[in-house]
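Q: Given only this backbone (578 positions), what sequence would you predict?
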């Protein structure tokens, strides 16, 4: 049924969605549930908005329990996902900074972490009727066991899990008082650790009949918000050899997480954990992200009673289609001439590669921006990020909703174009004033980042107007890297990534098989500059000296003048690492 005055593309943070909305919106096929439900330790890496939180929440036992009940199926207790958000007041506590002794600081860091984990486990399982209502005899027996192990007394008159939740809250409060006082050194001899609290707690829990064979998935979200000591502590837990009872699934927005342990060692990818890149390949509508995007948008439309195809709901501008057809015919004639007597595949490959380039190249220099529209264009400007996919759809629908109270059957191509240009302009405005929105960005850095992106766009425009073999390239790799130059470049790239103006993908150079970092500017930026957001698989090779000069001296990035001089890196993108 149509839900009046509701926008199907609302994109609240996953933490703010109701359990039913998570079940409604989640696309199980494409969000790495298969990795999360293994017994291996997993790092989910990806920028904000790539679906990390949604994936963890969906695989939490709270949601899976409700899903089973909703579908009339038997509850599966083999995997118990415990969602542990790091972006909470407890994780952001700075009490450890009051301690001059690094060892004591690491002790209190682990103390708070294990209390948070036990609190999350207790709260999750206390909401499951079958678990919270275990027999009074078993509940008391479990309490007695924990009291004996901890030398503590649990509150009477409540269930085992509720008692453990209250215990963890009480211990956390007591720890804060003692640290702020800094007079009781005995406290540090009794701080709790993973092995002294979490593991005995899990051992007790597994005495409950339905949990005897359970594997606990500790779903740690927003790990990038943890301080360095907290990260080292979690890495130390991941280094444990026995993960038969539990495993860690750590979601982080960091492209290069810290893997150092509390003892100064390091956890190793492939040995201690598997890394999963949540920023999905998205080059065309048949790519993994293209298929995911289609399912996400269709599911939202259908939820609100809109049963239109995406092609009909987001129609492409007729003038754009006509102009593309003319460009295709022109390029086809050129290909037939060029490959006289050649294979049909040579001609079709040439047409596929150069048709869009011909369209953008042949537009008059003083013409308005192209009529950006169509669902494929919306996928392109998302840069493979789910939140970026929903944002323009939301504003397009809102624009139509403000004009009519009737059921919306499509978003006119003119509305699509207007919204895409408007959102692109907004992104450029934010780029120009990064020092005003990012506390870690100075005024000089903001100016340098703006210069870099401005010159990247000029470079991409130059390529588009050239006769190069890959004219629509809109990603780059940094070559001829000089350590001193990269030390100046990296902070700028890090800020741009944090602001989601730039993304990275890890791939392999097809020529050398070497691992390489591909830098991907947010493709919504391309709209304002009249570029083709669809891009190509290849990446432009730009020297570190040219990147730095573009940023600090506002110097143009050279565009190769001939095809032979064009250094293009053909990339195979990794979907998962390890």
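A: Predicted residues:
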């Amino acid at each position: 049924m149509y839900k009046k005055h509701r926008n199907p593309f609302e994109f609240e943070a996953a933490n703010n969605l109701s359990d039913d909305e998570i079940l409604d919106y989640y696309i199980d096929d494409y969000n790495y549930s298969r990795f999360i439900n293994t017994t291996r330790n997993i790092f989910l890496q990806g920028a904000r908005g790539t679906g990390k939180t949604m994936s963890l929440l969906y695989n939490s036992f709270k949601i899976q329990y409700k899903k089973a009940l909703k579908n009339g199926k038997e509850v599966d207790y083999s995997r118990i996902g415990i969602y542990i958000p790091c972006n909470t007041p407890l994780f952001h506590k700075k009490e450890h900074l009051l301690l001059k002794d690094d060892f004591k600081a690491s002790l209190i860091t682990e103390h708070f972490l294990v209390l948070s984990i036990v609190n999350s486990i207790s709260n999750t399982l206390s909401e499951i009727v079958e678990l919270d209502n275990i027999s009074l005899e078993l509940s008391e027996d479990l309490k007695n066991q924990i009291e004996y192990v901890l030398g503590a007394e649990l509150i009477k008159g409540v269930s085992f899990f509720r008692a453990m939740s209250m215990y963890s809250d009480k211990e956390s409060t007591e720890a804060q008082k003692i640290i702020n006082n800094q007079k009781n050194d005995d406290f540090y001899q009794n701080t709790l650790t993973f092995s002294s609290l979490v593991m005995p707690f899990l051992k007790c829990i597994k005495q409950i009949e339905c949990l005897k064979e359970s594997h606990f998935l500790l779903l740690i979200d927003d790990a990038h918000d943890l301080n360095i000591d907290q990260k080292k502590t979690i890495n130390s837990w991941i280094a444990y050899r026995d993960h038969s009872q539990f495993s860690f699934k750590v979601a982080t927005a960091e492209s290069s997480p810290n893997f150092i342990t509390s003892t100064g060692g390091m956890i190793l990818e492939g040995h201690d954990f598997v890394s999963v890149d949540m920023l999905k390949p998205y080059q065309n509508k048949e790519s993994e992200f293209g298929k995911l995007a289609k399912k996400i948008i269709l599911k939202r439309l259908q939820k609100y009673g809109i049963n239109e195809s995406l092609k009909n709901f987001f129609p492409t501008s007729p003038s754009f289609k006509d102009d593309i057809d003319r460009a295709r015919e022109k390029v086809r004639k050129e290909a037939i001439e060029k490959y006289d007597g050649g294979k049909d595949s040579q001609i079709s490959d040439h047409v596929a590669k150069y048709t869009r380039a011909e369209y953008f190249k042949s537009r008059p220099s003083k013409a308005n921006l192209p009529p950006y529209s169509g669902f494929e264009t919306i996928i392109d400007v998302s840069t493979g990020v789910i939140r970026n996919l929903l944002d323009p759809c939301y504003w397009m629908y809102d624009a139509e909703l403000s004009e009519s109270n009737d059921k919306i059957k499509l978003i006119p191509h003119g509305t699509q174009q207007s919204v895409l240009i408007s959102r692109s302009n907004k992104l450029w405005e934010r780029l120009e004033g990064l020092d005003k929105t990012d506390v870690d960005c100075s005024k000089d850095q903001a100016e340098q980042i703006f210069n870099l992106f401005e010159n990247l766009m000029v470079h991409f425009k130059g390529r588009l107007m050239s006769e190069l073999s890959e004219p629509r390239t809109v990603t780059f790799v940094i070559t001829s890297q000089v350590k001193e130059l990269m030390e100046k470049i990296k902070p700028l790239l890090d800020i741009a990534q944090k602001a989601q103006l730039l993304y990275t993908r890890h791939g392999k150079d097809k020529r050398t098989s070497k691992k390489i970092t591909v830098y991907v500017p947010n493709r919504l930026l391309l709209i304002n500059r009249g570029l083709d957001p669809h891009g190509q698989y290849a990446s432009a090779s730009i020297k570190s000296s040219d990147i730095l000069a573009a940023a600090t001296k506002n110097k143009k990035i050279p565009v190769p003048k001939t095809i032979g001089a064009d250094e293009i890196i053909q990339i195979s993108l990794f979907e998962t690492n390890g």
